[in-house]
Specification:
The protein has 194 residues and is α+β, with helices and mostly antiparallel strands. The chain has helices at 23-96, 100-112, 128-142, 174-189, and strands at residues 118-124, 147-153, 161-165, 168-172. It has two domains: 23-96; 98-189, hypothetical protein PF0899 fold. Helix 1 (23-96) packs antiparallel against helix 4 (174-189) and helix 2 packs parallel to helix 3. The protein is rod-shaped and about 130 Å long.
């Protein structure tokens, strides 16, 4: 076992034996302390900046998500307003010219069925006379020489109709078209009307 030694600082603290620090050493110590403080402040500022940048990024993500949700809601509402407007305009147009849509459909069908032996047009029973006159006029314009038959049916909505010929046919069904448009809007926005 070794004997205990008294801890010695190695510096003599008696009067007059103390070494005075030189100005250069003092300036170096101050500079070192200053640089250490600047480095510490720089690291602390970078940490705070990183934290604030993260908060800003999260806030921006939240705002973008909220804006996207608002935009989607506005677009969905606009689609439903457009459907309601289209229904209102279609109703007004149907009241003004109940055979306008059928006229376009008959024109298209006559271009395909010009040589067909017959053409059958099924309309609402209240529109048979007007439809017969329209079909005769359009058949003459398109050079259709086949037999024209117009039948009235109570289950067909005024303005709608069915056109049939030997090789084909055409159905004009506003309710089915409305349902298809509403289904398409529901598919795009993921649910039904607001």
């Amino acid at each position: 076992m070794t004997s205990a030694k008294k801890f010695m600082f190695g510096t003599d603290f008696r009067e007059g034996s103390r070494k005075a620090a030189g100005e250069a050493e003092l300036a170096a110590a101050r500079a070192e302390g200053f640089h250490a403080g600047v480095d510490h402040a720089h690291r602390e500022a970078q940490g705070q900046l990183a934290g604030l940048t993260g908060q800003l990024a999260r806030s921006a993500e939240r705002l973008f998500a909220q804006e996207a949700a608002r935009t989607a809601a506005v677009e969905e509402h606009a689609a439903h307003v457009a459907i309601a407007t289209a229904k209102a305009l279609a109703g007004a147009a149907l009241a003004e010219k109940p055979l306008a849509a059928l006229e376009g459909a008959v024109r298209e069908c006559l271009s395909h069925a010009r040589t067909a032996p017959h053409l059958v047009l099924r309309v609402h029973e209240s529109m048979v006379e007007a439809a017969e006159e329209l079909v005769r006029k359009l058949a003459a314009e398109h050079g259709f020489a086949g037999k024209l038959i117009v039948l009235g049916q109570s289950d067909i909505v005024p303005g709608d109709g069915r056109i049939e010929w030997a090789e084909g046919g055409f159905v004009l069904d506003s309710q089915q078209l409305t349902a298809l448009v509403e289904q398409a809007v529901a598919r795009v926005f993921g649910h039904g009307q607001p």
